[in-house]
Amino acid sequence: xxxxxxxxxxxxEKQQTGSSRRRGxxxxxxxxxxxxxxxxxxxxxxxTMEAVAIRAQTNKTAVYRxxxxxxxLVVAAMIKHMPKPSLDAPDTGSLREDxxxxxxxxxxxxxLIGAETIHGLMVDLHGDELHAxxxxxxxxxxxxxxxxxxxxxxxxxxxxxxLEGLPERVITLPVDLVRYxxxxxxxxxxxxxILEIVDTIYxxxxxxxxxxx
Length: 213
Known about the structure:
Elements (H helix, E strand, L loop, with lengths): L10 H10 L3 H19 L6 H7 L4 H7 L3 H12 L13 H31 L2 H7 L8 H15 L10 H4 L1 H13 L5 H22 L1
Helix pairs in contact: 2-3, 2-5, 3-4, 5-6, 6-8, 6-10, 6-11, 10-11
């Protein structure tokens, strides 16, 4: 009997059959892209593993096999799709502008994902995973602490500060305050808050400690 011209499978069934053949990185990238798109469109609180699976044209089992919960999936999607800030020390010719530039690089990705996502991740992960990613390696190995040290070395060459005797905690204070604010408030700092950290807290402290040194 000749095969019917009409394939008995619906388009959706064909799609699921085709998608089920994807393996490894191809499938993982599709899921991460779907998760990132869902996050942008619906927000963290409304994002579901089922919706991600549908968008990725796969099934929930394939998603859960790789990421056991929504929070870990969203973190993986953020790592893959968020812009990676440069942690090299800026060199604008001004201590103030260098510090503002570095902090802006840290804060802009956080502002991009928004307070709802940060709060949701902190609650669902109990802060553990984000805390581990943000803190607290020894200052000598921490890229942000190294960047702050290099910023001050450049400022010293320009005659803005004297590094000798400047306490390590003072050197790294801006990035430490950014971390503290994020981990305790679960919200990204505003541009106004960054200006306050630099102009009201950091620069007066650095100049005072530098003179005393």
